[in-house]
């Protein structure tokens, strides 16, 4: 259970990071 929640948090952070990069590029 803990590993899954950790992976999910990691995916969310990566997603937010990508969105932030797109915002900076535009």
Provide a descriptive summary of the structure in words:
The chain has 1 helix and no strands. The mean pLDDT is 87. 92% of the residues lie in helices and 0% in strands. The protein is mostly helical and 26 residues long.
Distance between the termini: 38 Å
Give the proportion of residues in helices.
over 70%
What's the shape? rod-shaped
Number of helices: 1
User: What is the number of E strands?
Assistant: 0
Structural class: mainly alpha
- Would you identify the regions where 5 or more consecutive residues have pLDDT less than 50? none
Average pLDDT score: 87
Radius of gyration: 12 Å
Largest sheet: none
Order of helices and strands: H
Report the β-strand fraction as a percent range. under 5%
Brief sketch in words of this structure:
This protein has 26 residues and is mostly helical.
Which helices and strands appear, and what pairs or packs with what?
Layout: H1 2-25
Describe this protein with a few key phrases:
single chain; 26 residues; mainly alpha; 92% helix; rod-shaped
């Amino acid at each position: 259970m803990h590993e899954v929640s950790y992976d999910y948090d990691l995916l969310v952070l990566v997603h937010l990071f990508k969105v932030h990069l797109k915002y900076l590029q535009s």
